[in-house]
Amino acid sequence: MITFKDLEVDSRILQAITELGFERPMPVQAEVLPILFSSETDMVALAQTGTGKTAAFGIPIIQKLDLTNKDTEALVLSPTRELCIQIANDLSVYSKYIPQVTVVPVYGGASIEMQQKALLKGAKIIVATPGRMLDLLKRGNINLSNLQRLVLDEADEMLNMGFKDDLDAILERASSDRQTLLFSATMSKEIAAIAKNYMNDPVEITIGEKNSSSQNIRHFYCLTQPRSRYLALKRIVDFYPDIYSIIFCRTKMDTQEVAAELMRDGYNADALHGDLSQAQRDYVMSRFRLRNIQILVATDVAARGLDVNNLTHVINYNLPDDVEQYTHRSGRTGRADKQGISIAILGARDKHKIFQIEKKINTKFTQMHIPTGEEVCKKQLFKVIENIENVDLNETEIQEYFPVISKRLEFMSKDELIKRVVSVEFNRFLDYYRDAKDLNVDEKAEGHSDKRDRGDRGERRDRGERGDRERSPRRSGGKFTRIAFGLGYKDKIVPQRLIGMINDFTRNRDIAIGKIDIQDEISYIEISDQHVKDVLDAFQKANYRGKRFGVEVANKNRRSGSSSGSSDRNRGSRAGDDRDRRKEKPRDKDKGKPKRRF
Ligand code: AMP
Question: Ligand 1: does its nearest atom lie under 6 Å from the Cβ of 336?
Fold first, then answer.
C-alpha cells in the first residue's frame, strides 16, 4: 500500500501530517499528489467534500513554495468564511515545521483592517472568499504578479453562491503564468466554462464516478403524510440514540420551527439559518462541533462551509429544490472514510424527485420504513442496557451511600431490581409510544386518492404521537415558574436562542421548558419548578453579546399552558413560534426523562 513517503512528501510536512493521524493517502491524495509534484499542469478534480482534497492540493502547494522571497505564490479561493478559515488552519498545520510559510485567511464579515495588517507582514499563501479577495485586490493590498498556483475550491458552490463575476475579475488579475487547480463536487456547464476560459488544457481527475455520491453514504427515503413529517423525524432520531446529524430544511421558517420544536421536546438541537449574525452562527457551529448540540437544523446556504466529520446521518426534512444540492447535503456525512446515512422524509407525491436524484448521483435509494413505536422502544431499551453496561462506576463516592441503598432494596430479587432500574428510563418511551400510529404511507393508495396529502404548504402538522396534548418522551412535566430575562427581540432573541442559552449556562438538560413569550426588551420563559434555582444561579453573571442582563422570577407557580399574564398583543408575529405550546399540558407522570449520552 502506497505511503506519503513513497509519494515523496517533504519530511517536515510528513511529520506534521503524521501527528494529525494521516497514516496513508486518501484516494484523491494518491491520485493528485504525484501529478502536482511532477508537473505544472492545470487540473480539474471532481471530489466530494470530506475526501481529503485540502491535503491533496495543500501539500504540493506548500512543498513547491520558493521560500527565498516573500511574494504571494499561492491563492486558494473558497466559498465561505468557515471553509476559508478551515483551509487556512489546515495549511498552517501541514506547514508547522516550515516556519517561513505564512498562511493568511481573508474573508468577508470581519475587519478588513486586521486582514490588511496580516497581509502587510507577508503571505506566501492567501486563502480567501471571492468578494473580500476582490475588494483587497482593488485596494492594492494584494499583489498577484508572482502567483504560481491558484486553487478554486468547491468551485460549484462558489458559482451557486453568485461569485461568478468576482471569480472572473480575480482570475483576470492573477498572473497568467500560473497553475490553476479546480476542485468541485459536481461537474456542470458553468464549471466546464471556467475550465475552458481560464485553464490550460487541464487534466481531469474524478474520485468515484462523475457527479456521483460517495461510496460511503447509503441513501434512504421514507414516505409519510406531510403533516406527520415532524413525528417521522422524531421517530428516526429516537431510533438512533447516538445520532449526530444535520437536518436540512428548505426554508428558514421550517428550520426555526423544527429546531424550536426539537429543543422543546428535549433534544440537543439548534438552528442555523441566514437570520443569525456571524457571532451567533459561530456560536451555534462551535457548539455543534463540540457535540454540545447533537442535531443541527439548517438551511442549505447556512450549512455551507460547516466542516464537521463523523456525522452519522444527514436528514432531508424536505428535499432541496435543486437536485444538485442533494449531493452537497448528503456529502456532509460519510466523510474521511467513515460510513454515513442520508435519509429523505417525503410525502408520497415527492417520490418522483428521488428518481431524478438517483439519476444525478448515480446511486440507488432504498425505501426505509419509519420505525414503529415498538421498534423505537426496543432500540431505546437496549440503549438503556448499553448505558448501564458502560457507565463509569464511581466506587468511592457511591460507597458512602451504598449500605443504606443496599438495605432499602434488599427485599428485591435481582430480576426485579434490573426491571426497575431499566424502567426508570424506559417507561417514558413506552408511555409515549404506546398505541403510536404507523406513520408510513401506502404510496399507491396515497398517490392516487388521498386528497389529504396537501404538500408542504398549509399542512397541519401532527404535534404529538397521540394528539396535540401529548408531550415528547424526552420532556418532564410538573409545575412551572415563569422567569423573566432582560433580553428581547431588540437583542435578536428568538425562542431557540433562549432555550439554547439555558441549556448552555445550566448544562442541565433535565430542565423542562414551558411557554415562551418574547417581547421587545424582555422575555418570559416557564421553567420546571425544581430547576428555577439552577437557572437563576447559572445566569447570575451572564452576559449576552457583551450585554449584562437580569434574570428573575416573574410571578408565582403556574401550570404550563395557563395564561401567561402577558398580553398576546405584545407578542408580535414572531411569537408564532410558541403558539402551540399553549395547547400542551404537562403530565405529572412524565417525571424525569432519558438523558442523551455520547
Ligand atoms: P477535506 O476533504 O480536506 O476537508 O478532509 C476531510 C477530513 O479528512 C479532514 O478532517 C482531514 O483532516 C482528514 N484527512 C485528510 N487526509 C487524511 C488522511 N490521509 N488520513 C486521515 N485523515 C485525513
Answer: yes
Ligand 1 pocket: which of 22, 32, 91, 306 to mutate (most atoms <8 Å of CB)? Answer: 22
3-state secondary structure of 77: strand
Q: Is the CB of 305 under 6 A from ligand 1?
A: no
Which grid coordinates belong to 195? 475550465
CB of residue 514 inside a 6 A radius of ligand 1: no
- Cβ of residue 571 lying under 6 Å from some atom of ligand 1: no
Q: Assess whether the C-beta atom of 50 lies below 6 angstroms from ligand 1.
A: yes
Quick check: CB of 26 below 6 Å from ligand 1?
yes
**pLDDT per residue over 234-258, tens digit each?**
999 999 988 999 999 988 889 999 9
* Predicted pLDDT of residue 10: 95
Q: Which candidate, 303, 84, 326, places its Cα nearest to that of 186?
A: 326
Q: SS3 string of 205-229?
A: EECCCCCCCCCCEEEEEEEECHHHH
Q: Give the C-alpha separation, 310 to 291, whole Å.
A: 11
Atom 4, ligand 1: residue with shortest CA distance: 50
* CA of 309, closest atom in ligand 1: 10
Torsion, Cα of 32, 38, 41, 42 (10° steps): 30
- Tens digit of pLDDT for each residue in 437-489? 889 987 665 544 444 433 333 344 554 554 433 456 665 556 788 899 999 88
Buried b / exposed e across 87-104, counting CB within 10 Å, b at 16+? bbebbbbbbeebeebbbb
User: From edge to edge, which strands make up the β-sheet containing 245-248?
Assistant: 269-272, 295-298, 245-248, 313-316, 340-346, 217-223, 366-367
> What predicted TM-score, i.e. pTM, was given to this entire model?
0.58
* DSSP-derived 3-state class of residue 333: coil
Question: CA separation (Å) from 54 to 17, 60, 120, 193, 417?
Answer: 12, 10, 25, 23, 54
